[in-house]
Design a protein that fits this description.
The protein contains 14 helices and no strands. Helix 9 runs parallel beside helix 11. Helix content is 66%, strand content 0%.
Length: 251
């Protein structure tokens, strides 16, 4: 526990730690390694985390934005993986009660506290909605463009994953031209999780713009990393997959 930690952060962490007393430390260590985080991992399964959230904390109130600001502090302060997860569980339940303006002012700052793919992907789910909605799109895209050239790998990852997240969850999509502009600079990125994001984004772009995305992948097939390539062709026809694989093989 850090000195000067907010009392509600302490409340959440103490509650989680009490629940963890009988948990398997070996399994928690394996989970920590799998997630790839430097945060403390208690090892509580998702159902227990959700039950803990539902049971409630002293800062709960009818005003969901007030509760959100408490979770914002907890997310930024806590070094416990599951404590940060509770902030996302709250958003899953109540994001519609939090104004998009408040989300725009708050959620982009969460990326600087991300050090693992699980929290990164959870955050993408909400950032992509800020891109989809016309009232917040321009400002969120301005942030995305800055992240695209960031030294922070998780910001670079967000600059791609948040574009589509899962395309099927969105009614509106960004243009293929913008997708291309943001993917190109990261094709040769050295970070594994950024390469996973390249593959993810091209796969989801293919679901929306199949012809344009296929042409882009075909043009850059020899530059795309093996990690990204495996993911980006997942939704293609067998004929398309075979054609691209043969072209890579002959590079």
């Amino acid at each position: 526990m850090k000195s000067g930690t907010n009392k509600y952060t302490k409340e959440v962490e103490d509650t989680l730690n009490r629940l963890s007393l009988k948990k398997d430390k070996e399994k928690a260590a394996k989970l920590k390694k799998y997630i790839g985080t430097a945060h403390e991992v208690i090892g509580l399964v998702t159902n227990v985390q959700v039950a803990t959230y539902k049971k409630g904390f002293s800062f709960y109130s009818e005003n969901k934005e007030t509760v959100f600001f408490h979770f914002d502090t907890i997310y930024k302060e806590s070094n416990v993986f599951e404590a940060k997860n509770l902030a996302f569980i709250f958003l899953d339940k109540h994001h519609k009660h939090i104004s998009l303006k408040t989300q725009l002012q708050t959620l982009p700052h969460w990326v600087s506290h991300v050090d693992n793919w699980a929290h990164s992907d959870s955050l993408s789910k909400y950032l992509t909605r800020l891109i989809e909605d016309k009232s917040t799109q321009a400002k969120m895209l301005a942030i995305i463009k800055k992240w695209n050239a960031s030294k922070n790998l998780w910001e670079r990852r967000q600059s791609l994953i948040a574009l589509y997240y899962y395309a099927r969850t969105k009614k509106e999509h960004i243009s293929f031209e913008l997708t291309q502009t943001l993917v190109l600079p990261l094709l040769r990125d050295k970070e594994y999780y950024v390469q996973k994001a390249v593959g993810w984004t091209l796969r989801e772009s293919y679901n929306v713009y199949p012809k344009q995305t296929y042409a882009f992948i075909d043009e850059h097939v020899k530059q795309i990393s093996p990690v990204a390539f495996t993911t980006c062709i997942e939704k293609m026809t067998e004929k398309e997959k075979i054609t691209l694989k043969l072209k890579r093989k002959n590079r």
